[in-house]
Amino acid sequence: MSEHAEKAPVIRLRGIRNQFGTQVVHDNLDLDIYRGEIVGIVGGSGTGKSVLLRTIVGLQTPRAGDIEVLGVDLNKASEEEHNDVERRWGVMFQDGALFSSLTVRENVEVPMKQIEGLDAKTRAALADLKIALVGLPYLAGDKYPSELSGGMRKRAGLARALALDPDIVFLDEPTAGLDPIGASEFDQLIRKLSRSLGLTVFLVTHDLDTLHATCDRIAVLAEKKVLVTGTMQEMLKVDHPWVHSYFHGPRARAALETAEKE
Amino acid sequence: MTEPAISLTELSATDTLLTLRLRGACTVVRLEALQKALDPLPKDRDIVLEVSGVERLDTAGAWALINLAKRLEKAGKSLRFEGASENFQSLIETVENAYPEPDVEPEHALNITDRLDLLGRKTVAGWTFLSELMAFLGLFLARLFRSILRPSEFRLTALVHHCEAVGVQAVPIVSLMAFLIGVVLAFQGSTQLQQFGAEVFVVDLIAISILRELGILLTAIIVAGRTASAFTAAIGSMKMREEIDAMETLSLDPAMMLFVPRILALLLMLPILGLIADVMGLLGGALMAWADLGISPAMFMTRLVEGTDVKHAIVGLIKAPFFAVTIGVVGCHAGMKVKSNAESLGRQTSAAVVTAIFAVIVIDAMFSIFFAEMGY
User: Fold this and answer.
1) Which residue, B178, B205, B170, is CA-closest to B327?
2) Are residues B66 and B153 in the same domain?
3) Which residue from B35, B58, B102 is facing A165, i.e. has the nearest CB?
4) Pair B159, B283 in one domain
5) Does the N-terminal or the C-terminal CB of chain A have fewer CB atoms within 10 Å?
6) Pick from B94, B371, B284: which is nearest to A191 by CA?
């Protein structure tokens, strides 16, 4: 949201360089994300959208660059500061990445086990609340991930990401593999939760409808860096060839039309 | 994380209304303290919470506050928030709307009917499994016959590849195992037979037990362990990635492409492995007999040829094809039972190994009885 723009960013990337062998994925990449906004990361295949997400949450160590999350420089942070930051973000992986030997409720309880003084009953009740918040039926809590559909697994993954009421949620392709109805429900869920819980959402997606329906701001990854950021309307005016064909293609136009109708 | 502690102070109290001020961070980290503060509040009057001093509120905190509201509601009283910010109000509303209500009755304990039901299901499942294996065996034999009639459909390259994986690569482990078994038999036999001065019979002991039983049985168990699991894993992962479905839509027969080369490779290789095991077992026994009892290799040889009928070796090796087909069928069948998740792949792989080893031992026992009855 633009009114927050003057505040310090919650995620601040400077000069990130990621490299696999000789293949450079990111070079001198900068990005700022502000509190309470939903930012969609788009880019062609192989532009390192997921790598960028993994870099921020510490699953991938960049060759160079500074990552600052919630005011903590993760390169210089002590282990304790690191843990504090980790507790304040939640990550939803593509297929939920739920622990297959645990039920959905137990999955959501896992992050809560680090909080001292929460007894098992409270944990289970809070997990039930999170499961209900993401729109899963009460009975889903007793099921194992393999018994759920793809859309339900994603919701359960989101419930686990939200377990400790994080400030930032990272979503990796939240609507990939969902049918259009399920996808648009998920879009609305993300938007609703972000608004009512005050979440900052970092969202990697390919889905133009998701970009229209949920994102406050869009960051385009191309040429090994964040080429441009801005709202959907601003994206339409960018005349970089890739950005232009992405936001002016037939699919983009269809998505824009439906968004306008709504 | 440094989050301000919870404090709850009374502002005013009448018989019907209690006004309190809540301050601090109502978050999951402070949930225990928050619950401790809220739980003892009286339920006999309305409560007003002054919440402008609440610095942070998350869903856990909102949940605790809603729990209090629900308790009061039950007693016919109400809870009101004063000085709540917009965010505070919207979060309370969100959590209130999502508040989970259990909609199932708790599961009851298993009674006798349920147990009988379970027993019946298990029995039927066992029969189904056996008949499936039989059907699989039939499928294999039918396809084998077909490949004799139409040799062009037969995949020779795959057969050679599997022969290497199943047979050649198993030679070191099978040889070592058989050699050590021979050593152990000679050592154990010699200590027992020495008491009677019948050391020389250790040759018969080694020869008969290795040739008739141990050589081929232990080889089959090792092959069941390494090959049945490999078959299940290979076919199961193809099943998982829908490769088998793709083959069917391309009118390729998975039985012909996958099962026949694998099971046939086992059928060809297991007797050879059994023979190698026999030779290595005798070698190990002879070495130990020489070292421990002073029976020279030449004497061992003479005694072996004189005292041991060749029928023992035949009795042993005749079991090999039966073991081979069993292991192959169990492995391939388990592979086809894999569903589209990784857990079922792991489960089926270990189930295949257990079933294959068990089946090998059962068949061996049946052969023992058969040969004993036939006086062979």
Assistant:
1) B170
2) no
3) B58
4) yes
5) C
6) B94
Q: Do residues B180 and B257 both lie within one domain?
A: yes
Neighbours of A249 (CB within 10 A): 12
Q: Among partner residues A117, A122, A165, which is closest to B59 by beta-carbon distance? A: A165
Residue A148 one-letter amino acid: L
**By CA distance, what is B31's nearest residue in A?**
A118
How far apart CA B299 and CA B295 sit, in angstroms, is 6
Residue A96: both structure tokens together:
């939920």
Distance CA B227, CA B129 (A): 20
The predicted-structure confidence for B187-202, as pLDDT tens digits, reads as follows: 998 888 888 888 888 8
Enumerate residues 87 to 146 of chain A having a beta carbon within 8 A of any beta carbon in chain B. Answer: 87-88, 100, 112, 115-118, 122, 125-126, 128-133, 137-139, 146
Report the number of distinct structural domains present in chain B.
2
Q: B40-64 in b/e burial notation, b at 16+ Cβ within 10 A? A: ebeeebebbbbbeebebbbbbbbbb
In this structure, what token pair is assigned to residue A43? 């880019």
Same domain, residue pair B54 and B170: no
- A196–B contact, CB cutoff 8 A: yes
Residue B265 has what pLDDT? Answer: 96
Beta-carbon pairs below 8 A across chains A and B: 73
Query: Does the predicted TM-score (pTM) go above 0.90?
Result: no
Q: Which domain covers residue B300, as residue numbers? A: 142-374
Q: Which of B28, B103, B240 to mutate to test the interface with A (most CBs of A within 10 A)?
A: B28
- Comparing CA positions, the residue from A193, A175, A171 lying closest to residue A255 is A175
Closest CA to A99 of A45, A140, A157: A157
d(CA A207, CA A41) in angstroms, rounded, equals 10
Residue at B25 is within a domain:
yes
A88 interaction partners in chain B (CB closer than 8 Å): 1
